[in-house]
Design goal:
heterodimer, A: 14 helices, 75% helix, B: alpha+beta, 2 domains, 9 helices, 19 strands
């Protein structure tokens, strides 16, 4: 090691100290709680944990969570691509207002986000009576949960793509257009391939948050078991009923879903090493 | 393709990038737009390309008004400063892009496209590299790919924005020759933007010199170098010594320095004298020689007047030995402009 010391190298004790601190912190804050979730779930053995998961209410919660993510993520892919494309590649009046609006869900408490929808679509809300007249249920039903989740997760993909697209500039698009490509063709053949890794990363973050969102969904859901309970809400209910094994088993399943998405991301990157780094990620 | 630019104006916010610019470009010409950064040269190129639209004025291609036509409709080939190659496509796919996007009967067959790509790769001496990705190429090779991609659509005019800006000196020189060769082989009207006067003078048939959104002079490399029409052109093109002083009786004086100014009206003036226009002359003004350094066949002399003004002189190598101690200099000619 001494043979290749560089001027920017820190002393050995500093390296050990810094790396040690990081590992300690990660262990305490990330690994330990994660391990605790699985340990608690399996405290009475595998059988009770599996039973808690295969309970019809739990299965309904899993289904609803997956359904919510399956609607939210594609919606936000489209919205995020459009917003990032508009912001990064074009100039128009009101652009900075749009950027601020995209950040709104990050700055607003999720509970407030939920309440907004109750105020707008709830029984006493602006459209409440008209919705009842047409027999449309949004609050305390699946549409409300999906709406609240979309609201909370919509910055993830746009925020991931905007800096990437800005950094890449517009000259590739200009080159394509000058050779006669249409706007849509340019988008699919030039812009989209250049941001695919950023997009994937945004999708994973968006998906993780869509499955895990608690606050906003809690306000609009109504906590009807087997109907409007998502996995995080189901965990809370079981926990409040002192069913710890059940609560931790569902929580462990939620963690597994998150871990699977991370593994998927890594696998995708490893599978296409030639593309890595060329797209700016 | 002849191109006429008629009193084109373009503002960015309140900043005028182009101010009543007029320019005529002949068919098959190789023209350089030369100027410092912020002079409007790139904006003018983008207006010609149809990537930017002027606030006022007209752009004519072959007597046809294309002021607001798209780049594609004008059939321009544009080479971007940072190449703007499509990173995820092979070299061959990049070059074929302009043909691939065509629709219906305009679209050449696959065989035809392959033949055209091979022909272009041969033209820019990149045979066999069609299957590579841009990231696997050197800077000079990427530039060649960008050039052949622009040529693939058989453009009516080829436009290049600082084409050699990101390359090192050796590659620049060889690519310069390459561009000239490609231009002569295809005969396509070509306009390129540069801030490097050597590049412009070396490569172009004519040079248009821009400064603060205005074309100061258009002419052959000899014309702009030997007969500059403004102090800016004189200072920007070629090496020169600049003096501020007065003209009186056909002679420019600035401190102890005097230069010929035949036929000029008396009054304050600014004068430029090229380093190679000075020679030793007993009737000249006195300077002290600080240093002589030899560069190839030439000798560069750093001289200084009694009042501390520095003067660069270039002379032939065999004259170098005479430049020692205090000598007298006279300029064969000078460019003097009323101040």
């Amino acid at each position: 090691m001494a043979a290749h010391r560089r001027s920017t190298d820190d002393p050995v004790w500093a390296k050990v100290l810094i790396i040690g601190l990081v590992l300690l912190f990660l262990g305490l804050v990330l690994v330990l709680p994660l391990a605790a979730v699985f340990a608690e779930a399996l405290r009475k053995g595998l059988q009770p944990a599996l039973e808690a998961i295969s309970n019809p209410d739990a299965l309904a919660a899993v289904k609803l969570t997956l359904l919510t993510a399956a609607i939210t993520v594609p919606f936000n892919v489209v919205f995020g691509l459009c917003a990032a494309w508009a912001v990064a590649k074009h100039d128009f009046p009101g652009k900075s207002l749009l950027i601020t609006l995209i950040d709104l869900p990050f700055s607003v408490s999720p509970v407030v986000a939920g309440l907004i929808y109750v105020l707008v679509f709830g029984l006493q809300g602006w459209f409440g009576e008209r919705l009842i007249d047409h027999d449309i249920k949004i609050i305390f039903a699946v549409p409300g949960i999906v709406l609240a989740t979309i609201f909370v997760t919509f910055p993830f993909i746009a925020r991931e793509l905007i800096p990437l697209m800005q950094e890449q500039g517009v000259s590739e698009e200009e080159a394509a257009v000058s050779m006669g490509a249409s706007g849509l063709y340019t988008f699919w053949r030039v812009t989209a391939p250049n941001v695919r890794w950023g997009l994937l990363y945004g999708v994973l973050l968006c998906n993780a948050r869509a499955m895990g969102e608690f606050g906003a969904v809690s306000v609009v859901s109504g906590h009807i078991r087997g109907l409007t309970n998502t996995m995080p809400l189901h965990v809370e209910i079981l926990y409040n009923e002192y069913d710890f094994v059940g609560a931790f088993a569902v929580a462990a399943l939620l963690c597994l879903l998150a871990i699977v998405t991370l593994v998927l991301k890594t696998a995708l990157e490893v599978a296409q090493p030639a593309v890595r780094g060329r797209s700016g990620h | 393709m002849t191109i006429s630019i008629r009193s084109v104006e373009k503002k960015f916010g309140r900043y005028p990038a182009l101010n009543k610019v007029g320019l005529e470009i002949a068919d098959g010409e190789l023209l350089a737009l030369l100027g410092p950064s912020g002079s409007g040269k790139t904006t003018l190129l983008r207006v010609i390309a149809g990537l930017e639209f002027p606030d006022a004025g007209q752009v004519l291609f072959h007597d046809q008004d294309v002021t607001f036509a798209s780049a594609a409709a004008r059939r321009v080939g544009f080479v971007f400063q940072q190449y703007a190659l499509f990173k995820h496509m092979t070299v061959a796919k990049n070059i074929a892009f302009g043909l691939d996007v065509r629709k219906g009967k305009d679209k050449p067959s696959k065989v035809e496209i392959t033949r055209r790509v091979d022909e272009l790769l041969r033209l820019v001496e990149l045979e066999g590299l069609g299957g590579r990705y841009p990231s696997q190429l050197s800077g000079g090779q990427r530039q060649r790919v960008a050039l052949s991609r622009a040529l693939a659509v058989q453009p009516s005019v080829l436009l290049l924005d600082e084409p050699f800006g990101a390359l090192d000196a050796t590659v620049r020189k060889s690519l310069r020759k390459e561009l000239r060769r490609v231009h002569d082989a295809t005969g396509v009207t070509t306009i390129f933007v540069t801030h490097d006067q050597e590049e412009a003078l070396d490569l172009a048939d004519r040079v248009a010199i821009l400064n603060q959104g205005v074309i100061e002079q258009v002419g052959t490399p000899e014309q702009v170098h030997d007969h500059p029409v403004s102090p800016f052109v004189c200072g920007f093109v070629g090496e020169s010594n600049r003096f501020e002083g007065v003209v009186s009786g056909g002679r420019f004086t600035s401190g102890s320095v005097f230069l010929p100014a035949t036929g000029l009206a008396d009054g304050p003036a600014v004068a430029f004298a090229r380093p190679h226009d000075f020679s030793l002359d007993g009737s000249g003004f006195e300077v002290r020689v600080n240093r002589v350094h030899i560069q190839g066949a030439l000798a560069h002399v750093d001289a200084e007047t009694a009042d501390g003004r520095r003067i660069d002189v270039v002379t032939s190598r065999d004259q170098a030995e005479h430049f020692t101690g205090t000598v007298r200099l006279a300029a064969r000619k000078a460019h003097v402009f009323p101040a």
